[in-house]
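Priority: medium. Attachment 1 of 2:
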């Protein structure tokens, strides 16, 4: 399966850069290179940004040295080198792991929507921001990269 077909299968929240997108691939790649600092686990890795998420600053990358490996990285758009665990790596592994992470995101958003409809969760605010963060467990399945930070990821 080619990357455009895979990206399309992730749903409408992803913009495939090879299909004509609102952001140029070079813009996203430059910001990724700028933010990834020497202590980040992907520093020096050859990453190709193949898509970005419409609803936030996530980018989907393919590892050029290991074409079966994909990562979802959350950029900050600071336009400078980050520190610590930023930019965060929300999912890292083979394509099936990316799909599993996305299924987790969809399930968390659906559960939050059901709680909003039942009145057990405050609805989105006027700016489209959730009343409380939605947490989705990060997926890190690439075995030889134990340096990739693990942990939950809040969703707006």
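Attachment 2 of 2:
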């Amino acid at each position: 399966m080619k990357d455009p077909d895979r990206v399309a299968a992730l749903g409408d929240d992803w913009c495939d850069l090879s299909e004509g997108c609102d952001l140029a691939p070079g813009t996203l790649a430059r910001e990724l290179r700028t933010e990834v600092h020497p202590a980040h686990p992907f520093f020096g890795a050859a990453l190709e940004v193949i898509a970005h998420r419409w609803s936030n600053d996530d980018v989907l990358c393919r590892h050029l040295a290991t074409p079966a490996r994909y990562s979802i990285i959350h950029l900050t758009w600071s336009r400078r080198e980050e520190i610590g665990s930023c930019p965060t790596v929300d999912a890292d592994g083979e394509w099936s792991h990316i799909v599993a992470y996305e299924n987790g995101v969809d399930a968390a958003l659906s559960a939050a929507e059901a709680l909003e409809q039942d009145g057990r969760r405050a609805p989105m605010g006027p700016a489209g921001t959730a009343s409380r963060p939605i947490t989705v467990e990060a997926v890190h399945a690439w075995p030889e990269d134990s340096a990739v930070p693990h942990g939950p990821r809040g969703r707006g």
